[in-house]
Amino acid sequence: MVAQEIKPSTQSLQLKITPDQAELLPLDPAVKTGTLENGFRYFIRKNIEPQKRATFYLAMKAGSILENEEELGLAHFLEHMAFNGTKNYPKNELINYLQTNGVRFGADLNAYTSFDETVYQLPIPTDNPEIVKNGIQILRDWSQNILLATEEINKERGVIMEEKRLGKGAGERMQSKYLPVLFNHSRYAERLPIGKENILLSFKPETIRQFYSKWYRPDLQALIVVGDIDVEEIEKLIIAKFSDLKNPKDAPERKEYSIPLNGSNQFISVTDKENTSTVIQVLMKHDAPDFKTTIDFRESLKKVLFNNLMSSRISEIRKQADPPFLQGGSSIGDFMAGLEVASVVASVKPGQLERGFKAVWTETERIKKFGFTQTELDRMKNTVLVYQESSFKEREKTHSNNYVNEYLALFLKGNASPGKEYEYNFYKNVLPGIMLEEVNALANKYFTESNRDILVMAPESQKDSLPDEQTVLTWIKEVTSTKILAYDDAVSDKPLMANEPIPGKVTSVKEIKSLGIKELTLSNGIKVVLKPTNFKNDEILFGSFSPGGNSLYSDAKYQSAVNAVPIIASSGLGQFNSKELPKVLSGKMVSISPYISERYEGINGSASHADLETAMKLVNLFFTEPRVDRNIFDGLITNYKSSLINRSNSPSSVFSDTVSAILGSYHVRRTGPSIEKANQISMPEAMDIYKDRFADASDFIFFFVGSFKVDSIQPFLEKYLGSLPSINRHEQWQDLGIRIPKGRFKKVVKKGSEDKATVQLVFSGDYKYREKENVHMDALEEILKIRLTERLREDEGGVYTPSASVSYSKNPSKYTISISFGCAPDNVDKLIAATLDEIEKLQKNGAKKEDLIKVVSESKRTRETRSKTNGFWLGYLSAQYQLHEDLDELFSYEKLLENISSGDIKKTSISYLSMKNFIQFILLPE
Ligand SMILES: [Zn+2]
């Protein structure tokens, strides 16, 4: 029997752990693990979140680092081949089988290859033992029975080349220059998983077969299974299926490679004409410690505290009228190949590299000189503990994927996985004893002067003004020799709300039993829809809407309207400014975000049960006491403007701005951002609009979904929502009349230097908004994905991953279907023709039976899991209320899905994929 009850010994944890008392961290007793005679390892755990599902990982301690000069790119190529024919599932049968049983499959979505590992991921339904057995067979096939047929290899070359093409651009060009430096010119620098073009196009099939037999072998493999399964059963299956795996006779040694630290310092500056941002990064590399003992665990807690404290400091620096940087950071984290890294990074406004860099570096120096304060540390310990407690409360509702990833790290890196109960106890017992000096000491330990790389990245236009190594070193010296002041941790002890609100009352209650919801009306007119659930142990999600939005303001005020919330939400709240508010809220499990969209305004958020009242106070304050801060406003606008300066360098931004402008008929609200538009944002106007939007609570509907009882939540609703001001204004949003242009035309954008193209095809027109029609449209989207993947990827080998998306609206009754893909510029016409040919086939013959089975099965499986989440219910209820649609639609979904016929898809594609309104957008190199 496998222990379901987790009872680790907590006694040893009561002791204060000091470095001479290292103990090995235990393995979570809920995990069943073993090693077969051939070296194959397994990790199995029962977990019922989500129910009737399990995640299977087949992990390989083999990746691109093992490739010899003739094999560059073949570890990743091999991963693709796992989906193109195995002993028991030749050709595409594997994907067909899984899709037919409701498993969504996509390009690389279910596997990845990196330097040191390759991991195959198989999420499968477990309510049918047949599928579980076959799932294990698939993993067994991958471990040593991938067919690697010559014909299939040759077909896949095109797909891999397209995947490589998608990665091309400014980022990749700069990376090819600086990665060898960051990797200390080690073997890693020459082993990027995507590989080398000449090899991918011309390697002999025999070469990849050899790579397969050399490295896919039981002593480098493990199977991880977490889910709604019988552990004993699975173990039996694994023993039966994997014991006969053989290690090759003259198996080469699996060397552990590393990035050698030689104590030297390096500097590299790279520019590119398509790059849009200016960034300086200083990386200080260190050997990474193990994560095996109680001492290791304690060390990691110190880093957690350090990083969080540092991040609060840095985010405060941004809260000024002219912030020294756009983004900044200073932290200690994992690097790769057995290294960790302390990094200082600043993304800056053009021409302000020195200022931005010095600001972040000064903060690091400040810690070296003065450290953090005791009050900062105490607050952070409390915050960290609150999060740990919350994670502990949800331990039985933790998603299987989280566990799988823990065991993956255990297998690949030997990282201990003691289990949530042990971890929680460790935090509770050890965190309070971590002293301020210990956390502060990390600054000198990690932010060191050797093994330090300085990297500068900028647009080509700035090439002549960029610093050289000597200049950056001078900046560092200047910071160190400047008088730095200690940080003043100003904390307010005022209560969150200055005045207690006078509660309203619940005036009526309506119960909708079929959905388990209650609808309350408060005395000021607010409606509250409550759906208590037990999907999580301690999670309450809420949302709200009121009609109006920015549609009610003229185009001249649009910029202020659309930017009102970002400005106000960053300016503090009630009695607290933007620096005080995060401190007041530290340790609270609360998140809150007001919004003003085109047609609605509202406040969304989440809270733990204990912090629900705090959340409700914040909601109340966002109605009654919003703040706007001149410095925050100026800071946001300056940073926003400077982020636009180099926007036109980026081919993808230019393309997406063009697409959006044309689809919006060049309406000023749909064209891309500009300095001129940024200049139209007015602070008083933004505040007026915000206040106007939240002036009348009477037409708001709130939704609460999660782990609460109606009786316990009601007093908060009456007090903090029922007290909100109401003027019984009758408002409706305005239709701005922005429509996609009619007719057929083509827009070609020429931008960029790489040999790559992007295609987006847009179909649009009038729509009949009905539940049945919507279900058919959603199915059409999935059918299109299947057909286009088969045609453009598998048959033509011309696209890595085609996408299709369908959207429809009720008012106005319109739809859009968009198909897009990246490809070689020479293939654009051919691939558009192939796409249209697939559409024509759908219009003539309807959907293939096997495609329909896949779509219905996948959609059912997705809904089955989704409908057991709070997020699903919040979204569903808000949408149905907003559109005045039937709340019972939910119950007819499955029936409608099952009843879709090939003829329905035929009809839907004739109606909505007609070429009447058809726009082709094509991005080509200059
Ligand atoms: Zn790939």
Automatic annotation (TrEMBL):
Start and end residues of each Peptidase M16 C-terminal domain? 203-383, 693-854
**EC annotation?**
3.4.-.-
Q: Which GO terms describe its biological process?
A: proteolysis
All copies of domain Peptidase M16 N-terminal, residue ranges: 45-163
Question: Where are the annotated coiled coils located?
Answer: none
Q: Which InterPro entries match?
A: Metalloenz_LuxS/M16 (IPR011249), Pept_M16_N (IPR011765), Pept_M16_Zn_BS (IPR001431), Peptidase_M16 (IPR050626), Peptidase_M16_C (IPR007863)
Q: Which Gene3D superfamilies match?
A: Metalloenzyme, LuxS/M16 peptidase-like (3.30.830.10)
UniProt cross-references to PROSITE patterns, sorted A to Z: INSULINASE
Q: What GO MF terms are annotated?
A: metal ion binding; metalloendopeptidase activity
Say if the entry is tagged with keyword Ion transport. no
Named cofactor requirement(s): Zn(2+)
What keyword terms does UniProt attach to this protein?
A: Hydrolase, Metal-binding, Metalloprotease, Protease, Zinc
Reply yes or no: does the keyword Transcription apply. no
Question: Which Pfam families would you find in this protein's record?
Answer: Peptidase_M16, Peptidase_M16_C
What family, per the record? Belongs to the peptidase M16 family.
Name by which UniProt lists this protein: Putative Zinc protease pqqL
Species the sequence originates in = Arcticibacter svalbardensis MN12-7
